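[Discussion] Sanity-checking designs against the backbone

I'm trying to build intuition for which residues belong where. Below is a structure token string of 226 positions. I'd appreciate it if someone posts a full sequence so I can compare it with mine line by line.
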């Protein structure tokens, strides 16, 4: 089984299945396809187009099967490795966990757009200006805080549904954004973010991201001025 990913410092969608596989102890081979211009004739597209109809990462290849959507990869892995309990075992909790992941999949556009993942960077000044001037960011973070608090209170655990599950992997890149831009969080949610950052699978990704030193100017956030 192979997982094709992009640069670890920037590729938030790649991070999700990589962390899920690594934290769950599921063996796989990593294939890193460096980000470039993404033009139709770029090396990135030339590598992925023969494998995936979207020409994007992440991409899971298992024998003759290719799975090219992050949420679809999570579902496939849960079916292939039921003993790993990648989704909560309780039916109601499982439905809620899927709803949260689907919401992340299609929402939080302000946070993703204004605060692109950049694990190597520390941008609290940029984050402060974005927080001040972008109401959409404040709305997105308020929604994150509300959903995470509800899950943590219901599970009584250190992670969203008690034990590690797909939602924790799904929100790991969000935690990276919150840290990079130092966006304000209540104490209990800041503690959850730190617990996610300390997960072995997450730490393995972030350590590798910080070691890349592969600067791509088009992936860097705009530098705002007060």
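Best answer:
Here's mine. Compare freely.
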């Amino acid at each position: 089984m192979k997982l094709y990913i992009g640069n670890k410092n920037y590729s938030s969608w790649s991070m999700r299945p990589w962390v899920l596989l690594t934290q769950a102890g599921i063996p796989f081979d990593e294939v890193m396809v460096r980000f470039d211009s993404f033009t139709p004739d770029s090396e990135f597209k030339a590598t992925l187009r023969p494998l995936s109809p979207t020409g994007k990462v992440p991409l899971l290849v298992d024998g003759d099967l290719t799975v090219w959507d992050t949420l679809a990869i999570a579902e496939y892995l849960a079916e292939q490795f039921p003993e790993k309990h990648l989704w909560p075992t309780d039916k109601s909790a499982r439905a809620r966990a899927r709803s949260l992941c689907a919401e992340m999949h299609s929402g939080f556009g302000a946070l993703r757009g204004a605060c692109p993942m950049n694990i190597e960077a520390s941008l609290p000044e940029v984050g402060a200006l974005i927080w001040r001037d972008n109401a959409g960011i404040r709305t997105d973070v308020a929604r994150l805080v509300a959903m995470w608090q509800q899950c943590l209170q219901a599970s009584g655990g250190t992670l969203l549904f008690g034990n590690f599950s797909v939602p924790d992997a799904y929100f790991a890149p969000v935690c990276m954004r919150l840290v990079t831009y130092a966006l304000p969080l209540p104490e209990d949610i800041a503690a959850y973010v730190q617990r996610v950052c300390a997960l072995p699978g997450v730490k393995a990704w972030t350590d590798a991201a910080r070691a890349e030193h592969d600067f791509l100017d088009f992936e860097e956030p705009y530098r705002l001025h007060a």
